[in-house]
Amino acid sequence: MANIKGLGWKKKMVNLLHVLSVYADKEKMVVNAIVEVNAGTINKYELVTETGHLKLDRVGYSSLAYPFTYGAIPKTLDFDNDPLDIIITCVTEPLIPGSWVEARVIGLMKFKDGGEVDDKIVAVLNDDKRVDHINSINDLGEYWIKETSYYWQHYKDLKKPGTCEVIGYFGIKEAEEVISSCIRRYNEESLKQFGKEKDNHDCDDCCNDD
């Protein structure tokens, strides 16, 4: 059994997108993430930000399947008004969609979808010794970059061809900067939705990140 430290028992189910801290270990650049999609599927699942439930957003428009595990980082908000996306690569065994994992950041893929910023943090599972040697995107090899770029540039071709653009791949420093900006955006924009409800919120610590 796993527990959220300091949260205690609650009478209603909590939404991990608004409860978990961004970082599990900031010094080691380990973030919390919630799994949405596994490698090898064309189904696109997304977390409902208001409730934390997992919803089938769409079935892919082609047979081009996700080549990696995909999820969201809690307490963040990107320019597309969704939690910051995270690519978790080199996963040994499929993860359960909706599960909470700790992922070690190794870089950033800057991306635009229909002209809108939709960056992706790149990471590996923190609790898998098989990936301890992977410390940067370069460690994944040239083909990983080619395959990942191909997926993102073409996965919408049968719906909106030419609308997706991979800007490039960057290091941990750039990834940390994007995470920080998405934390600020979450605090400035997303928490406004709580309004008066915040006064009655039964988890004061969950709305403030370390």
What labels describe this entry?
single chain, 210 residues, alpha+beta, Inorganic Pyrophosphatase, two-stranded antiparallel sheet, 2 helices, 10 strands, globular
Structure commentary:
The structure is a single chain. The protein has one domain (16-193): Inorganic pyrophosphatase (Inorganic Pyrophosphatase), CATH 3.90.80.10. It is 14% helix and 28% strand. The protein is built from 2 helices and 10 strands; from the N terminus they run βββββββββαβα. The strands form 2 sheets. It has a 5-stranded mixed beta barrel with strand order 2-5-6-9-7. A two-stranded antiparallel sheet has the order 3-4. The radius of gyration is 17 Å and the shape is globular.
Describe the secondary structure blueprint for this structure.
Blueprint: E1 23-25, E2 30-37, E3 43-47, E4 54-59, E5 69-72, E6 85-88, E7 100-113, E8 116-117, E9 120-125, H1 142-154, E10 164-170, H2 172-188
How far apart the termini lie comes to: 25 Å
Average predicted local confidence, pLDDT = 88
The number of helical runs is 2
CATH class assignment: Alpha Beta
Number of domains: 1
Structural class: alpha+beta
Annotated CATH homologous superfamily: Inorganic pyrophosphatase
